[in-house]
Amino acid sequence: MAQDPMLPRRFRVKRVWKELADVATMELDPIDGEAVPFRPGQFNMLYAFGVGEVAISISGDPADSSGLVHTIRNVGAVSGALANVSDGDVIGVRGPFGTAWPVAEETGRNIVFVAGGLGLAPLRPAIYHVLQNRERYSGLTLVYGARSPDDLLFAEELKSWKSRFDTEVEVTVDHAAPGWTGQVGVVTIGLDRMLAGIDKAEVSAFLCGPEIMMRFSVMSLTAAGVPEERIWVSMERNMKCAVGFCGHCQFGPDFVCRDGPVFRHDQVSRLIAKKEV
Amino acid sequence: MTARTGDSFLLDDPGPLIDALHADGWRVIGPRPGDGAIVYDEIETVADLPRGLVDEQEGGHYRLRESGNDRWFDYVVGPQTWKKWLFPPRQKLWSAIRTGDGFDIEAPPVDFPKTAIFGARACEIAAIEVQDRVFDNGDFADAGYSHRRKNTLIVAVQCARSAPTCFCASMNTGPRTEAGFDIALTELEDGGFFVECGSDHGAEVLDRIDRRDADPAAANAARAVTEQAAEMQMRSMPENIAGLLKDSLDHPRWAEVADRCLSCANCTLACPTCFCSDVEDINDLSGDHTERWRVWDSCFSLDFSYIHGGAVRRSTLSRYRQWMTHKLSSWHDQFDTSGCVGCGRCITWCPVGIDITEEVAAFAAEPAEPADAGGLAT
Amino acid sequence: MKIHGFEEILAQHPVFRDCGRDTVDLLSGCARNEHFRAGRTIFSEGDDADKVFLIREGDVAIEISAPQREPLIVETLHTGDVLGWSWLMPPYKHMSDARALDDVRAISLDANCLRTKCGQNPELGYQMYQHFVPHLAVRFRALRMQLLDVYGTRKG
Question: Are B36 and B64 in contact (CB under 8 A)?
Answer without folding.
Answer: yes
